[in-house]
Fold this protein.
Amino acid sequence: MILGKVLTCTRIELYLNFNKLLTRNEREEIKLLIKKRATHYPLQYLLGETEFYGNKFFVNEGVLIPRPETEILVDAIILYIKKTNKSKWKILDIGTGTGIIPISLSKYFAENKNELSLIATDFSEEALENSKKNIEFHNIQNIKLVQSNLFENIAEKFDIIISNPPYIQNDEMKNLSKEVKKFEPKSALLGGKNGLDFYNKILKNSGNYFNKNGKIFFEIGGNQKDKIIDLAKKLNFTIIDTIKDYNNFYRVLVLER
Ligand SMILES: C[S@@+](CC[C@H](N)C(=O)[O-])C[C@H]1O[C@@H](n2cnc3c(N)ncnc32)[C@H](O)[C@@H]1O
């Protein structure tokens, strides 16, 4: 992939040009990138891009690298929208990062009769700049970006509120790979002492932001299902669905007030 980046070609083109000799400059550039990767600098930051839900997304150091598990969250929302007899949807994504969730939804429903109006928020300026770049790259018209600390700058009501919030327990940080703990933004990862700070705040403050039958779709940490369900029940939410990822961890929680 590093070769592909330096030579600006696809992986298949590398094989098709197997005997091509590298120039001195190309060799130097490749060496530099390999040295940087050897410090555990994530490949996605090195390449400046990654793939999510079959699409290309730009990613830089200030934002979380999209994870494949989040595709389970996107799948769950798509399935829910498809099976619900409703044409217009107001959707809020809290902590949008690279913008992968709203952009994937927008692209999926672009040629469908469902009309989506999406608001994507983040408190991080770097994340908003990164998601703006992705929105422009994919030529998306129905996503509005808002800088906001959770619901602070939001005044509308929604049919779906989505969040993949920071959910790593503070004391678990030391167990993460060097790629993550050395290079990814802590503000996108850490969810407080028990990892639940953001779920707690979002659930407590979401009351005024739902349309009738509004749902909340959370991505959750592998061992957090029961704790978040307890929290949700205490705050009078109904548990609509729990969905596992391919590693058999509960990854998505759907709630209704
Ligand atoms: C785990 S990342 C998820 C990013 C992206 N949605 C994804 O699924 O890859 C959490 C995001 O929440 C943002 N965030 C953290 N605290 C926030 C806050 N108080 N208000 C809004 N966004 C916040 C971070 O900047 C980060 O982009």
